[in-house]
Each structure stands twice: as C-alpha cells, then as structure tokens.
Amino acid sequence: MVAPSAPPARHPSNCSNRTHRNVHRGAIRNTAARQRPSILDPYKDIIEGYLDEDARNWHKQRHSAKRIHERLVQEHNAKVGYTTVQLYVKARRAERKTAKDQFLKLVWAPGEAQVDFGEADFVVYGRKQRMHYLTVDFPFSNVGLAQVFPGENAECVCQGLLNIFAFIGGVPIRLVFDNATGVGRRIGEVVRASELFGRFACHFGFEFSFCNPRSGHEKGAVENKVGATRRNLFVPVPRIYDVARYNIRLLDECMGRSDKEHYAKGESERALFMEDAVALRDMPAAEFSVVSYRPARCDKYGYVCLDGNHRYAADPSLARRSVIVGRRAFCIDIYTEDGELVATHDRAYGDAPSSSDDPLSQLNVLCMKPSGWQNSLVRHSLPDDLRSAMDAMDKSARSDALRCLRDTAEASGYASAVDAMGSCMDLLGEIDRPSVEIMAASAASGRGPITYDDPADLSAYDAVYGKAGGFHAVSE
Fold first, then answer.
1. Binning pLDDT at 50, 70 and 90, where does residue 475 land?
2. What number of other Cβ atoms are within 10 A of residue 110's Cβ?
C-alpha cells in the first residue's frame, strides 16, 4: 500500500510575507479610521469647554452627556445623534481622569521652600483658643520651621517669614504658597498679591508661585510637615503667655527635630539643610518693617473701627477726622495725617466685637490671678451693683464668675457680657453661666432681651406641687 502523500509544506518566507501584509493592511485601516473626519469635529472644542467648566463647578452641578447633546443642538444647531456625543464624552472624561490621577514626582532644589498654614489649640493666659501656625518646609532636606499667629492675614504671613529668614540667616530662592493663603487673592486663574506681600517679596528678592486649587500633591511636603509639627510639638497643648516670645523658642524646637536621618536620602536632615543654607540668598542690608498702612476715619467718639467689628481708641480730639492706621501681626498703630503716633493697641482677632478700652486683656490674667481683683481695671469697669455682688463672693465663686465673664466676652463682646451678668444677678441672684451666655448672645445680635408674647401659666404646676407638699405658690 502506498502511503498518502503529505500536503506540501508552506515555505516560511510565504507565511512571513502574508502575515506582514495582513499587519500592514490593519495599520492602514486603523490610520484611515483615525484620519477619517468625525461628525463631532466642529464641536469638540465646544465640548472641551463644557468639561473645563465642569472641573471648576460643584460635582453635583455638572453637565451630563444628555445635557451636552441638548446644548449642542439648541445653541449650535448641531446635527449629531445623542449616542455619538455620549460615547465621545465618556471617552474624554476617562482620559481626563487618567491624566488627573497621574502625578509627577517633583524634584526640589536646595533653597526652595513650600509654605502653608495649620491650626492647633493653645492655652493662652489660661484660656484655650485655636491658633494658626505658618509652616515653611524645605523639601530638599525635609527641615520645617513654624511660627504661631492669631490669624492668616498678610501681616502674619510676612512677619512669620521674616522671623524664619532671620533665624536661618538667608532668604529662600523660591517660595510656593498654598493657593495664595494670606498673601493674595485668586480671581480665576490669576493671583493678585497683596500690597504688603508684594513689597516684602521685592525687598527680599525671592521668587514665588501659588498652587492650583485642590492640588495638594503640588505641596505634599509642607502638608506632611504641618501634620508632623502638630503631633510632635503641639501635643500636649502648649501653655503660653507671650506668643511672640514663644515663637523664638519654637524655631529652636523645630530645628531640633532635624537631628534624624532623611526618610529617603540616608543622610541627616540637618546635614542636608547645609546645602539649603548655601543656596539661600543673602539678607538685604536694609531692615523691613512688617506693617500695612491704610487711611481711616474716626467716629464721633474718636474711635477707629477695623476688620468690621474691632474698635480702637485714637483720641477724642480726632473725632470725625481722618487718621492713618498701621496694621501689624500683633498690634495696631494709629497716626495723625501728619504722621504723629497717637496710640498703639494690641490687635484683636475673631468675630466677637471688641473695643480697645475693654479690660478684656487684663481679664485673662485676672482669671489666673484672682487675688488682684480689688485693684483691677476689670473691677472698676463694672456697674456698682455687679461690682458689689462680686465683692461679696468668696474666692472660688468669684473665680468662676470671672471665667464666665471672660468666656462670654470672647464670644459676644465685653459690654454685652457685663450687661448679661448684671441682668442675671438681678433676676436670679447669682451668676448662671448658660443664662449669661444666652442673654449676651441675644444682646450682641441686636435682638435685645428675650420676651414672650403671652405670660406663662404655671397654675397647673402650682396645684400639683402644692398637693405634693413640695412647693407652695406665692400669689402677688
């Protein structure tokens, strides 16, 4: 029997050529598909504009694919089907999300720094309050320095930077800020620096830029440093009396934390900071005074009102006259139009109304040292009835009353707190903190005392408690 012959073998070169031709044809088809015009081409830029607008809006108030299709038809007379728009929008959103989730590993040169604010609680003059701390981090060495302030305005930012520049003996070559916090205002894509910060940057000669909104990855180093500073230097809650003096000590404490190995470079952070220090610009020979000057007008009593609700005494002779106000991080200077210094006051922060002649600053100290009550400014500022009532209290009760006055004044203003305590003594014969706080808040809001349209009928309660023998109504 003759074995059937095997099919002729394909020549290797023939297979290779056929595969090559198929691949080539596929590439041609794909290229042709990519080059083929789409019915959406005239509208792709418009769709991109809608998606850019969505990126700046609340996530619950963005375009759906259906809404984009409707706008193309209604506003641009587009002859395109919904499915075509829906598939394109879905693809573009996926591409945008992928690009957004891809972050570059940023490289920071020696002498460059990031700046941000954090918040922490501090006990100042025996009272716990939320303060802000400016943090300057050098990503190259991972050394971070902090300064504590009552606010985040331009005066606080520039004073904190000045303190840090003086401590390290030089000026960073570039500073990156968190979305213009405290030093400017962002309007769309444009950031306008404040007048004080603009002068400050020109004087010290550093470059500066601002992060994009909601772009924490652009300043991850300083955000980590803000958290580390809070955990390691502000726990337990610091007790301080003079914030400016505390800031001097805080710089040494921050630098002391650099005596450890860098998390990635295998060298001491303090040693790496030497390279940062070499790259710093020299401090200018001329000093810089961190103060912003603004014209203001005194009221009929000779007071200037700043930041909406804080009143500072100038002089009665300056009533209804123009003055110049110098704002610093911790104080306010008032000058005549000729430049003569009239008064200097501690700068007030917060939403509660305040006045420079309120004995509130002494009240904080008095709460810690109640033995100074007899000759204190607080005692002499109170109405006669309230002063006599507090004179008759024992030391413990007076201390409680002073703390009530202090805390209520912080929330509602000193005058409202004093009036509320006096009313509470008249009505109840004692200082009841909840009642004082409610009455002071009501007075500060302008609503006046709490009144009711109809008198309360307590006859039913009188009858019940009278039968029980625990209460006897007293008829007037």
1. very low
2. 19
Of 338, 355, 372, which residue is a domain's last? 355
Whether 128 is covered by a domain: the verdict is yes
Contacts of 209 (CB under 8 A, 6+ apart): 174, 175, 176, 177
Q: Which two tokens stand for residue 75?
A: 């506003």
Cα 289 to chain centroid distance, Å, stands at 24
* Domain of 382, in residue numbers: 360-444
Confidence of residue 7 (pLDDT cuts 50, 70, 90): low
Same domain? 313 vs 210: no
Query: pLDDT tens digits, residue range 457-474?
Result: 656 656 655 555 554 444
Residue 12 in this model has a pLDDT that exceeds 70: no
Task: Please name the residues in contact with 429: beta carbons below 8 A apart, sequence gap of 6 or more.
Answer: none
pLDDT digits (tens, 9 = 90+) for 368-411: 788 888 888 788 888 888 999 999 998 889 989 998 998 898 88
Tell me the CA distances in angstroms from 129 to 119, 120, 182, 237, 410, one per residue in order.
Answer: 10, 8, 20, 10, 10
Q: Summarize pLDDT for 64-80 with one digit per residue, the tens.
A: 999 999 999 999 999 99
Q: How big is the CA angle at 160 (ends 197 and 296), to the nearest 5 degrees?
A: 50
User: Looking at the domain assignment, is residue 1 inside a domain?
Assistant: no
Residue 49 lies in a domain: no
Give the torsion sign (CA, 178, 183, 187, 190): negative
Same domain, 314 and 251: no
Residue 10 has a pLDDT of 54
Measured distance CA(365)–CA(375) in Å, rounded:
13
- Residues 6 or more apart whose Cβ sits within 8 Å of residue 378: 359, 362, 363, 366, 402, 405
Q: What is the pLDDT of residue 338?
A: 92
Token pair 């007071």 is at which residue?
303
CA distance 414 to 407: 10
